[in-house]
C-alpha cells in the first residue's frame, strides 16, 4: 500500500510519497519543497494536491508527523476545515515529531535537519508501522468475526442439544408405553388402528424384539367391547392417557388414522395438553 507522509514542523510542511517498492519521493507543495504552513486551510490544500498528483486510491495510508505548533494547526484544520472529511476513507494517524526524535536519536528540530536518516530510516519505518497497524486491524476484525461466528455456532449447538434431549425424551416416552396397554386401548380410540400400524412397527416403536400377534386384517371390536374399553380409558389417570395418545400423536401415521367420534373430544383435549406436558418435562 502506498503511503503519504505529511510533516508539519518548524512552521513548514513537506509531503513524501512512499511507494509499495519502498522508494520515497518528496513532492513539492504549490511549487515549494517545504512551504510555510501557518493556516489550517493550507493543510487541506496540500493534502488535496498531493492526492491528486500521486493518484492514490481511497484506501491509501496518510501519516501526519507534527511538532507542537503543527499539532495545533492540525487540530484547527480538523475542526474548522473539516480535514477529517477530506481524508475520507484513507487510513491515517498523527505522530509526534518528538517521539520520532527519541526513537531514532535524531536530536533534530524537524525532518529537514536530518534528511539522510529521515529518508533511509524514518520514512521506511513509517510505511512499515502503518502496514503493521493495518495488519493488526485486519487481525482484530477477523477475531471479532470469529467470535461472532463462534457465538452463533454455540447458540446453534445449544439449540441442537435441547432438540436432541427433547427427541430422547420423546423416544423414552414411546418406549415406556407397554405393548399390551396399546393393544388394549388403541382400538378404543382409533378406527382400524392396526390396519395402519402393523405389528412390526408397533414392536419397533415400543423397543421390543418380538412383534405381538395381530390378525391381518385385524377385526374391529364389537360395539359393546368398544364401550367398555372407552370407559376404561376415561377412568385412566391423565398421565396414562397422555402416554397412550402421545404414542400415536407423534407418529407420521397419525394423519391416516381417524379418531372414533365418541372419543374425539377427549383425544383432542389430551393432544392439546401434550406440548405443555413436554415443556414441563424440559424444565425439570
Task: Please supply descriptive tags for the structure shown above.
single chain, 284 residues, alpha/beta, 5-stranded mixed beta sheet, two-stranded antiparallel ribbon, 11 helices, 7 strands, 60% helix, disordered C terminus
Description:
- With 284 residues, the chain is an alpha/beta fold.
- The strands form two sheets. It has a five-stranded mixed β-sheet, with helices on both faces.
- Strand 1 and strand 2 form a beta hairpin.
- The longest helix has 62 residues.
- The chain is rod-shaped.
- The C terminus is likely disordered.
Could you give a short description of this structure?
This protein has 284 residues and is of the alpha/beta class. It contains eleven helices and seven strands. It has helices spanning 40-54, 68-80, 83-87, 97-104, 115-176, 179-189, 193-196, 199-205, 223-235, 238-249, 264-283, and strands at 3-9, 12-18, 24-27, 61-66, 91-96, 190-191, 258-259.
Give a topology summary.
Blueprint (H helix, E strand, L loop, with lengths): L2 E7 L2 E7 L5 E4 L12 H15 L6 E6 L1 H13 L2 H5 L3 E6 H8 L10 H62 L2 H11 E2 L1 H4 L2 H7 L17 H13 L2 H12 L8 E2 L4 H20 L1
Parallel strand pairs: 1-4, 4-5
Antiparallel strand pairs: 1-2, 2-3, 6-7
Helix pairs in contact: 1-2, 6-9, 10-11
Amino acid at each position: 500500500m502506498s503511503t503519504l507522509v505529511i510533516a508539519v514542523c518548524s512552521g513548514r510542511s513537506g509531503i513524501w510519497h512512499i511507494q509499495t517498492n519502498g522508494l520515497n519521493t518528496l513532492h513539492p507543495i504549490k511549487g515549494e519543497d517545504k512551504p510555510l504552513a501557518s493556516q489550517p486551510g493550507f493543510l487541506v490544500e496540500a493534502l488535496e494536491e498531493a492526492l491528486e498528483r500521486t493518484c492514490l486510491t481511497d484506501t491509501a495510508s496518510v501519516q501526519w508527523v507534527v511538532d507542537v505548533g503543527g499539532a495545533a494547526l492540525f487540530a484547527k484544520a480538523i475542526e474548522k476545515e473539516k480535514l477529517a472529511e477530506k481524508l475520507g476513507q484513507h487510513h491515517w494517524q498523527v505522530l509526534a515529531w518528538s517521539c520520532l526524535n527519541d526513537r531514532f536519536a535524531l536530536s533534530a528540530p524537524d525532518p529537514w535537519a536530518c534528511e539522510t536518516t529521515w529518508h533511509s530510516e524514518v520514512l521506511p519505518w513509517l510505511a512499515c508501522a502503518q502496514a503493521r497497524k493495518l495488519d493488526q486491524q485486519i487481525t482484530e476484525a477477523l477475531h471479532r468475526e470469529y467470535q461472532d461466528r463462534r457465538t452463533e455456532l454455540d447458540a446453534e449447538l445449544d439449540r441442537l442439544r435441547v432438540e436432541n434431549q427433547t427427541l430422547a425424551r420423546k423416544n423414552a416416552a414411546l418406549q415406556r408405553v407397554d405393548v399390551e396397554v396399546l393393544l388394549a386401548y388403541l382400538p378404543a380410540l382409533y378406527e382400524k388402528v392396526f390396519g395402519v400400524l402393523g405389528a412390526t412397527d408397533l414392536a419397533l416403536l415400543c423397543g421390543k424384539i418380538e412383534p405381538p400377534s395381530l390378525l391381518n386384517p385385524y377385526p374391529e371390536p364389537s360395539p359393546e367391547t368398544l364401550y367398555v374399553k372407552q370407559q376404561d380409558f376415561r377412568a385412566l389417570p391423565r398421565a396414562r392417557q397422555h402416554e397412550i395418545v402421545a404414542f400415536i400423536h407423534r407418529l407420521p401415521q397419525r394423519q391416516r388414522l381417524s379418531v372414533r367420534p365418541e372419543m374425539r373430544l377427549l383425544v383432542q383435549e389430551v393432544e392439546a395438553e401434550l406440548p405443555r406436558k413436554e415443556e414441563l418435562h424440559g424444565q425439570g
